[in-house]
Structure formats: structure tokens, C-alpha cells
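1st attempt posting a full record on here, be nice pls
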Amino acid sequence: MEEIRLNKYIAMCGVCSRRDADKLIEEGRITVNGKPAQCGMKVSDEDEILCDGVLISRFGDKIVIAYNKPVGVVCTEKDEHAERTIIEDLGFDRRVTYAGRLDKDSEGLMILTNDGDLIQAMMKSRNGHEKEYVVEVDKSITEKFLTDMEKGVYLKELDKTTRPCKVKKISESCFRIILTQGLNRQIRRMCNAFGYGVVRLKRVRILNIELGELGYSEHRMIEGDELKMLYELARKN
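the predicted structure (as C-alpha cells):
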């Protein structure tokens, strides 16, 4: 059997990204054939690989889920300091992980899956995947604010300028924004750059998947043509 690096294998199993897989290995949460795993080691499908004592494998049915994250739920698999993690809130009976985070104070659509290849495709910033949000701010929105947001905003804390994006006013203090990148707390930082504070931030779409009528903490399986389109869009570029 072909051997591949352990972090890649873990990602292909849909447990987490390669970067997070390295953290799991460093924390001693991965074993290979009954022994603690080492960073950089190579494995194959013939090896017995466990994460927190649970067998992981590249084989089995692919699961892709749309989930509505409430405010207060933390995007982490395991954190003793978190009041409630996304995995606990989801309550799904199969191991899945998320493709892209939402911070604790944000809500809305997340996609979770056990397909590591799909996660890798969706996480590549250069692919320019669209994510749509509805944002409420703490004061009246001006046309200049909308125009400046669309052009791209220099974020001093990150020393980066955001990509041009689409912004549309919904009401006096609410707007819709479509991004093609996912910098840390990007929308909040963009608003802060113009003196606006975010009151509510809700993600309503990722690529072709829409939040729709999902209630808080609810999930649905993504299947059929909708799933096929998701794979096609995620792998473009």
C-alpha cells in the first residue's frame, strides 16, 4: 500500500485540516498501531490509526452536512474551556469536521464533512469561494461606507488589504456582503476600520449552499444535485 504523511492521511479521513492534524499529533491524541504518533511519519491504509481512541479511515460513505451555528458555540473539536463546542452542539453520530470557522460571537451556516479532500478544496484561499453574510452594525450606513468596503480595506492588525467584494444595503443599519476570502474576524475588522461596530453577523451562504430555514443548532444532509454542484464549485481553479 502507498504510504503518505500522517497529517495528510488524517485530513483525507475528514478529521481536520493538515495543520490541525499536526496539533493533534503533538498533543499525543493520535496513535499508530498502538504507539504514539510522530510528526512527519508516513502511514498506509494497513495501519491502525486512532484519534482520541477512535479508529479513523479513508473509506466509508461521504457525509456532507449544512449546520446552523448559534452564537456562543465555539468552532473547535475539543476545548475544556469552551462552554459548548460545535461537535457537542451538532450531536452527530459520525466523525465530521468543519470547512471554515465562524467565531464564537457569529452565527449561521457551516459545512461539516468527513471528506478531507472537500475540506482541503474549500479551505484554499486562492480558489476564491464565495461566502455571503448579513451584518447589522451599530449606526447608520452611508454610501461611502458601502463603496469603501467594496474596494477593499487595509487591516492594520493583519497588515493586509482585503479583496474587493460585493456589498448591498438592506436597511438603515444592515447590509449584505459577499467575500471570497476568510481572514481572521475579517468583517468585524473591516467595519471597525470605518468606525462601525458589528452588532450581529450571520453567514447565510457558502458557494451554492444556503442556510435557508434551518433553525439554530439544526442540520441537514447535503445530497443529490446540490452536493454535486458543491463539489464542482469547490474544486474550480
